[in-house]
Design goal:
The chain contains five helices and no strands. With 145 residues, it is an all-alpha fold. The longest helix has 29 residues.
Length: 145
Amino acid sequence: MEKIKVISNTVWGERHKILRFLISGGSATFVDFFFLYAFTEWAGFYYLVSSVLAFLISITVSFILQKFWTFKNNSREDMRQQVLTYISIAVLNLVINTSLVFIFVEYAGFHYLLGQFLSSVFIALESFFVYHFLIFKLKKQENVS
């Protein structure tokens, strides 16, 4: 119970970080939706192929915004490890995202954009905690903001 209280205080004590996370995530989501639509409707790709390609583009945007703006982690020292961890999490999120979109479209009968939206909400919630506590966790001497 104490651990939940510490996590809750940490998250709510950093409302600005949450706002930056939502703006960064919203920007990456916009990029994701734009390319999903463009690849599917304009380029004629199968929606799952479009979903994978759009997700890969959006994680690049997301990493840059999350690292340097949301979590104000400007250190280049651990960047290689952060990128590798971020890519690993992104690949897992890609599998979850594609699976959820498939389930929402094929089994629930939702339009692919609605399926992507619902999947994105889940991914965003999970990602904040992973980014905050695992990937972009600042060392004590770096935490000056």
